[in-house]
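haha ok so turns out i had the wrong file open the whole time. this is the CORRECT one, sorry everyone. sequence first:
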Amino acid sequence: MEDNNKRILKNTVYLYMRQFVIMALSFFTTRIVLEKLGASDYGVNNVVGGFVSMFTVLNSILQTGTRRFLSLNLGKGDALVLKDTFSTAFVIHLIVGTFVVVLLETFGIWFLNSQLNIDSGRMVAANWVFQFSVLTVFLSITQTPYTAAVTSHENFSIYAFMSIFETVAKVAVLFLLIFIPGDKLIIYSALLLGVSAINISVYRVYCIRKFPECQFTLKVNHNLLKEMVRFSGWSVIANVFQVGNTQGVSILLNIFFSTLVNAARGLATTVTFTISQFVNGFIIAAEPQLVKYYGANDREHFEKLVFNITQYTLFLLAIFAVPVFMEIDYVLKLWLTEVPQYTSEFIKITIISSLLVNSYIMIDKAIIASGHIKQMALIGNTIPVIQLPLVYIFLKLGYSPVVTYIITLVPQFLGMFANLWISKHYINFPSGRFFFQIMVKNSLFIIIACIIPYIVREMMPDGLLRFLVVCSLSVFCTIGIMYSFAMNAETKQMVRQKVIGKIFKRFR
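then structure:
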């Protein structure tokens, strides 16, 4: 376990190096993009891109299965089987990508031009954005096996490097956007397509040269194909509801309001996605180990990994989420020249949602690692079906868009309890102990950590001084309370030895 912890920590360091760069640059680029495009065109880009991404649900269905089967077969050490796995996965994704393109170029075009609420003067630009997004989606779908190969080999240095490259390239896009004449929205979308194409090409060349199994053929192992499709097939329900709920809400907001509300939603997504990436580093780095522990029937380390990674992620998420929640209004003033209505409220609610989801995401990963995805799909992931009808009803009754975000918390709570029940009854996971020791305890201490910063915030006038004081207090209170009271002894020891110890060692 010690070696595996070191591997997870090393991979996490790579992922967090990547994320610090991405976070800084993404906030910078978002401001410039919003300024150059304007709130309305920014909303057009968000709603059109979001609509196209709905059709990647078919790819998401296979994504989890591809990673799992590559990890399992890599552990077996059979090079031939591993190569067959990769080739079969690539062929599947190639077929899926082609089907998605056909679906988008028929139904998608009709929906874009007849159903979405976009100003008639911007429909030409919206159609160009649509076409560029379709090409990007196709490239991304066929890229999935290569990404899965990297994560299965736990080679996260290239993953981090290419992510940083992509983000830096997007900064370069902004400078080109300033100087290239023409419709800024069309130019911006075309340049982003170019960045994605370069990124994917470099990635594939690396994988082909580094990993023998990536030198694929179009030969398909039919037995393996059936097994992968059977496993992944149960992800259909989960991914349809996930994508449908996410982008479906965006479409409903567009129909009932305008692209300006979509701009606010896009900004909220940018903020919360960036914060969540800090915790995703641990999850991505730990997932291959989780599969391997379950495959080896190592129950002790399997359960410890779920407990510890959840604790790490909540700890890190709270450090960043609490100060942002407290001072989001001032952050938006500093960050943006034009703040669309509802942006602040959207961000606050999505932060709460992110904390909730990340409190049980490792339970989901544990169920997937065990192969009991059927139960999760039929029980836990059918609950979110209530979200879109509820959103529609409340919007139809004339309620504020903020209501749509509050509603999303309901199926998340219900889904959490459903997956805890599944993990208890199907993989004999100690769900009750996990719920109280990890979820309830951490939630309570995050709330306690907010008390002092909130009191100080209410006592001070709005401005830079309050921002600095409240953010500092939020970080110190969160770290102090979470480390002292929420973390178990093993987690504390690992933080001291693996994180703090290494930091001090660097400066000796």
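Residues 2-507 form one domain.
again sry for the mixup
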